Each structure stands twice: as structure tokens, then as C-alpha cells.
Amino acid sequence: MHRRGLWHNRAFLSLWAGETVSMIGSAVTELALPLTAILLLHATPWQLGVLLALETVATAGLSLFVGAWSDRVRRRPLMIAADIGRALLVASVALVLGWLRIEWLYAVAVLTGALDALFSSAYQGFFPNIVPEEDLVGANGRLEGSRNFAQIIGPGLAGALIQAFQAPFALFIDAASFLASAFSVAMIRGAEVNRPARGKRGNLWREIGQGLSMTFGQPLLRTMLIVVVIFNFFAPMLNAQLALFAVRVLGLTPLLLGLQIVAVGMCGVLAAFITGAVTKRLGMGPTMVLATLLISSGWLSVATLQRSWPATLLLMILGASVGTTGDVLININAATLRQLLTPDHLRGRVGATMRLFILGAQPLGALIGGVVGATFGVRAAIFCAGGGFFLGFLAAFFSPLRALLQAPTSVQTPAATPLVAE
Q: What is the pTM of this model?
């Protein structure tokens, strides 16, 4: 496997295909689910806010527990079960259309969020079992490219399906994509390592504590968590105000804004496929530091744009593309570094710890961004986000990441001890 690379790694190709389809389906649901509430149930703004918050709250709230559970058992069956469960939940919205109420959408959001947490935790531990260490950057790059591609094609596909079949029936696409993901994972054989025997399992709270200890006790993981949380605090501030900034401040039409989104998304796909070469040339740590600088400089340049400039659209595409390239570079390398630093029996818990703090930062950042935009103007919110990203660059620059030239191949930490019974 390791001599021939990813294109001959059947397990990875199967997982990649399934995840790509699932990401596209989920991008459809991101538009179809709130439109179902708006068009069919005449949801109020408050109800929409509750609906969009419930899935995030469920995912974050259960992360530590499902992370510990996924480290106890075989992960592949958990991933398959989570995919099938999500497929049934999403499809149920269309199946109960005549009796659909907003409370049912709330329940679907909560249960889907819980299964998202379960799948993600199991996936974090399973993925490094099917990809050799030297191929992890390339494999994570392909998955990041799929994520960017899904964000390009998903909204357009959702709009067309909703226009043709109404919002609830578009959810069948997401349900089918989850089944495709389950099938792709089921096709992977022989990738699991042995989990602890039932009699050797420790207390659940103690196991959660081991994940927290590993995350905060390992210097590189701790630094990476700080940097990623900073960016995930300020990113919702940017995302919530960017469309408003483009339309009202810069005067872009919806068509031009759509073209800008597609162009920047394609840049993200390209960046995902060259990340391996960039990382090999610069080193993993310097690449991550460079990525944080690209994110902050790209979006700060967007904040300076003026409606009167003749090349406003091109300059916005350029600045956003620079920021997106940095985002892709750090996402891929951060995922790879976490996979390499974390021993197999802790991967679910470390990933869950990261996810808890990231998801906790996002709604707070979006709320503060809204307050800044309403009080000082939309441009001020974009500047605030770009300045926040610069703080992330400083946190990365003055950290052990800057000196990390070679990807680590082993873990040296007291937290990486086998689970034992109390």
C-alpha cells in the first residue's frame, strides 16, 4: 500500500467516495431543512434560530461521551450505524409530511447532531488505520477538497431540487448520501485494531479525563487547539456578515456574489490538492504558520475594499481566495498532526475534545459579530474578524509549531497509556 500510494489504497478510495457523496448531501440539507420550516411550517425567526442551534448543541454536548465510547469499541460498526440512523432521520421529514410539525424538526436536529458526534468520533480513530502515516497529508487533502467541492455544488443542487420537488423531498438526497457513506464504510475490511476487553475498561469519566489530559498536556496539540479555537471564534463573525458586506457595501449583485463564491470554492479545491507538496517543501509547522498569515491578510484585504473601485469583484475574489487557501492548508495539516500525535486508543476522545471547544466558540463569535455589525457597521465586523485571525497567526508564530519541520512519527506523552480497570 505504502509504495503505490493513495490511488491504490482501496480502503481509502471507498471511504473518500462515500464521504464525498455524504458531504454533498449534507450541503443540500443545510438549505432544505430551514426552507422546510419556512415554507411549510411558517416558522418564526426564533424557531429558525432554535432549529439551527439544536444540532450544534447536541453535537457539542455529547462529544466527550461518544468520544470515550468510540475508543472502547470497534469504530467501523459505529460509523455504519450512525450513517443509517441519520439517513432514517432525514428521510422521516418527508415521510411524515402530512403530520409535520416544528417539534419534529427539533427532534430530528437533536438526534442528527448526536449521530454526527458519534460518526465524527469513530471516524477520527478509524481513518488513520486505513492510511499509512506518509500518506495522511494527501488523504486529508483529498477529503478537504471534497468538502470545498460540496460547498460549491451543494447549494445549487439544493436550490434546483427544492424548486422542482419542494424542500422536504430534497432531503431524500441527503438520506441517500448517508446510505452511500454507510455502504462505502461497510466495504472496508480488516482495518480495525483490537479494542480493550470489556473487563479492562475504566470508568467513563476517567477515560474522558484522559482525552482532556492528552489534548492539554501535549504541547503541539494544546497549541493547535488554541489556534483553531481562535479562528473558529472569528470565522462565524466573518461568515455572518460577508454576504451583507458584499451586497450592501460593495454593491455586488446576487449573480456576482454567486460567481465569487464559486471562484473562491474552486480555489479551495485546488489548494487541497497542492497542500501535500507545500507541506513537504516548507515543513508541517511552517506551513501551518503561513496558513494563519494567509487567512488574516486575505480577509483584512477584503475589509478595505470600496464600492467605487473598478476591480472590486476581482479584488474580493483574490482576497477571499488567499484566505481560503490558508484555511485549507491549516485544516489539512492540523488534522494530520492530530492523527499522528494521538495514539489509537485516545483518538476518539482527543477529536471530541477539539470538537467541543470549536463548536463552543462558533455561536459566541457569530453573536458578537452581529453586535459589532449592528453597532459599528458591517465593514467593522469584517475588520474585527480579520484582526482576530491575525491573533491566531501570532499564537501560531510564537509557539512550538514554527519549529516543527518534520511530521512526528511517535507519541511521547504520559497520557498515552493503555486503558485499565479501576
A: 0.86
